């Protein structure tokens, strides 16, 4: 029991560091700044659910998915890096689009899109997280890996749902500064993601 708990903590800590839900908070706050508290909670729930399902699916059948589509984790890393780079540049310039709501029918579609891309994929459940869960599955019992992923999903939901308290403490100016700082970090992460993908693809 103690050994299983120790393994759980190690796996959870590693996956938490890679998914980095805390780092996703500035992006989350930026794209949802025009939403009500209820709308932000809805996106937080959908983002956590999408990231959890994505990681579980890739943990269980990730290798077959990549083989079926003739792709690889390295190609996923390059594509995800390009997407994040574009987002990071928008954050640096302060032009990252926020969610706009005009009608209830449009709200559901918009929330779904934002929760899935870019928040859940590739910002949280990116190539690093996908590779990690696939490696976990190769050397640890499947039920334990699934429990770790579910725990990460709950953590993501809890952190993103608390963004309102963060915004109140930072204030409007503080949020803008944090978003631009995160934009710089995000662009560097994106470049590194592309570099890693190229290295892996060409076995450099």
UniProtKB/TrEMBL annotation:
Residues that span the membrane, as ranges: 6-28, 48-69, 75-93, 114-136, 142-160, 181-202
Subcellular localization(s) per the UniProt record: Cell membrane
Chain segments annotated as coiled-coil in the UniProt record: none
Any single Gene Ontology cellular-component annotation: plasma membrane
Topology of this chain in the membrane: Multi-pass membrane protein
Main localization of the protein described in the UniProt heading: membrane
Pfam families from the UniProt entry: MarC
InterPro entries per the UniProt record, alphabetical: Multi_antbiot-R_MarC
Keywords: Cell membrane, Membrane, Transmembrane, Transmembrane helix
Similarity-based family: Belongs to the UPF0056 (MarC) family.
Protein's UniProt name: UPF0056 membrane protein
């Amino acid at each position: 029991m103690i050994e299983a708990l120790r393994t759980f903590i190690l796996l959870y800590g590693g996956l938490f560091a890679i998914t980095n839900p805390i780092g996703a908070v500035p992006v989350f706050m930026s794209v949802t700044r025009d939403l009500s508290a209820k709308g932000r909670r809805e996106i937080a729930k959908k983002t956590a659910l999408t990231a959890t399902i994505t990681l579980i699916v890739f943990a269980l059948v990730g290798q077959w998915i990549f083989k079926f589509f003739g792709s690889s984790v390295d190609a996923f890393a390059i594509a995800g890096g390009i997407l994040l780079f574009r987002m990071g540049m928008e954050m640096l310039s302060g032009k990252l689009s926020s969610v706009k709501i005009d009608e209830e029918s449009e709200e559901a579609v918009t929330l779904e899109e934002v929760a899935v891309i870019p928040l859940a994929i590739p910002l949280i459940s990116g190539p690093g997280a996908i590779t990690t869960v696939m490696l976990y599955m190769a050397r640890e019992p499947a039920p334990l890996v699934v429990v770790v992923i579910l725990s990460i999903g709950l953590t993501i939901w809890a952190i993103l749902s608390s963004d309102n308290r963060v915004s109140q403490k930072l204030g409007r100016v503080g949020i803008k500064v944090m978003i631009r700082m995160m934009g710089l970090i995000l662009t560097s992460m994106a470049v590194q993601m592309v570099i890693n993908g190229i290295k892996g693809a060409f076995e450099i």
